[in-house]
Amino acid sequence: MKRRDFLAAAAALLTVDAIAAPAKSSSNKKKAGSTAKPAATKSKKSTASTSKKKPATRSSGTSYRPAVQSAENSVVDNPPEGTSASRLPPVRPPELPSDWRTFEIVTTINLKAASQARTRLWLPLPFAQDTLYQRTLSHAWQGNPLNAAMRRQPDGELEILFCDWRPEDDASLRLTTHVTTADRHFDVTRRTVAPERDDILRRYLQSSRHIPNEGLSRQLGERIVGRIKDPVAQAKAIYDWVVENSIYDPTLPGCGTGDINKQLINGRYGGRSADINGMFVSLCRSIGIPARTVQGLRVGRSRLFQSLGLRGDEATRAQHVRAEFYIPGYGWIPVDPSDVRRAMSREVLSDTDSRLISLKRVLFGVWEMNWIALNIGSDVRLPDHNGVLPFLLHPRMTQGNQLLSDENPATTPYTISARQVEL
Fold first, then answer.
1. For range 121-133, the mean pLDDT
2. Rounded Cα distance, 160 and 339, in Å
3. Which strands, in side-by-side order, build the sheet including 147-152?
4. Could you give the CA distance from residue 409 to residue 406 in angstroms, rounded to a whole number?
5. At what angle do helices 354-362 and 337-346 cross, to 10 degrees?
6. DSSP SS3 for 157
7. Dihedral of alpha carbons 40, 41, 47, 50, sign
8. Which of 60, 79, 238, 262 has CB 3.0 to 4.6 Å from 86, enough for a Cys bridge?
9. pTM score, two decimals?
């Protein structure tokens, strides 16, 4: 037999033995136990190696973990590995600001009596708790209300001055408040170990009447952040999207309605500050980042743009809503995408204007405190008042069952002035 014929025959024989070996070992386990064991071991190794390879493939989905969290699976409970929310923060006490300014806010009520109609007032007050950027120094009032009392919700999110007058009395009140503020900055290089209470974080992951965290909101939020894992970067992507895709509408009354459901259904995003910053809050909550709107009032001139502050002492219609979101280790981080759109509209700036680009960068993490925070309450139930309000921002007055609106300057039942003072 020639050598090449011998090699061909040997190869054919080996192939037949390899195919027949498993069947032979399985049918004669007792006779060939020692032979069957290596075959079984080899089979297990082969299976194990195959199972290790499968999770690496994108189609199997075994080890693939989406970057997006949700309101039920938040960055607080389950932070993505290797991101800013998962690293243990160093022990660093917060630094107190050194540059504080004091403002005097005067609210004046003058309203003629209506026959057989009792007059009531719910006046939102500045934060009662001291923060690193705002402290309420004093309240003083004078007037003729039958009853006047400061009332605070049990959770501390809202404090109001509630007054009522007899039907035959003209309503008169003058409230003077002193508040001191310092500009608020977010420093990405500093982390603290003072976590927020769990019940508070849970509250700002939930939906409210006008701010959803599921459905269209979650679909949009997931599309915006895509595969971004870091929570701070996720919030920045949402902030950029809101700035680029919302429209500021100065013709709307007040600060807007804050109805985010309506924006999502119509596919038209924007409005005024409650609408634009409310959209940011909704999208953050939908991907598991606690967020909230903060109702407030402009009380001074702006160093950034004239349109972002008062031009004098008149502050009757200077209400403005801002927003903040929470990241473990960093705490609450301030943002204001609405003021970017406001400056663009009022100052007539193009998208490529260097001043607008700088403002967009600044307002992610900075609040210029020519503005005071009033409250963070939502779905508000007021004492001696029927119904639920999405938020309380403007002074609210009624005579009998009639709501006195402030949309018409000629019939506004109150005035507000604000100025910087030295105490």
1. 93
2. 26
3. 147-152, 159-165, 119-124, 396-399, 402-404
4. 7
5. 160
6. coil
7. negative
8. 79
9. 0.79
Q: In this predicted model, what pLDDT tens digit does every residue of 167-215 receive, in sequence order?
A: 999 999 999 999 999 999 988 777 766 678 889 999 999 999 999 999 9
> Phi and psi (nearest 5°) for 287?
-105, 20
Rounded to an integer, what distance in angstroms lies between the CA atom of residue 374 and that of residue 301?
Answer: 18
How many CB atoms within 10 Å of residue 245?
14
Q: Mean of the pLDDT values across residues 385-393?
A: 90
Of 192, 230, 197, whose CA–CA distance to 89 is shortest?
Answer: 192
C-alpha 219/C-alpha 11 separation (Å) is: 60
DSSP of 264-319, one letter per residue? Answer: HHHT--EESHHHHHHHHHHHHHHTT--EEEEEEEE-S--SS-GGGS-SSSB-TT-E
Tell me the C-alpha distance between 423 and 108, whole Å. 22
**What is the pLDDT at residue 329?**
83
Instruction: Give the pLDDT mean for 34-53.
Output: 44
Cβ contact 406:413 at 8 Å: yes
For the chain, what is the largest distance between any 2 Cα atoms, rounded to a whole number of angstroms? 129
Token code pair at residue 170: 């003209």
pLDDT value, residue 213 = 95
- For residue 19 the two structure tokens come to 């195919």
DSSP-assigned letter for residue 399: E
Specify the pLDDT at position 35: 44
- Residue 276 Cα distances to 182, 270, 280, 287, angstroms: 25, 5, 7, 18
Q: 271 to each of 146, 257, 264, 338, how far by Cα in Å?
A: 39, 8, 13, 9
**Which whole number is the average pLDDT over 271-292?**
97
**Phi–psi pair at 11, nearest 5 degrees:** -65, -45
pLDDT tens digit string along 141-171?
999 999 999 998 877 789 999 999 999 999 9
Q: Which value, to the nearest 10 degrees, does the dihedral of the CA atoms of residues 370, 381, 279, 351 take?
A: -30
The torsion angles phi and psi of 93, rounded to 5 degrees, stand at -65, 145
| 63: its two tokens | 């080890």
Residue 401 is predicted with a pLDDT of: 84
Look up residue 409 and give its two tokens: 């300057």
End-to-end CA, the chain? 115
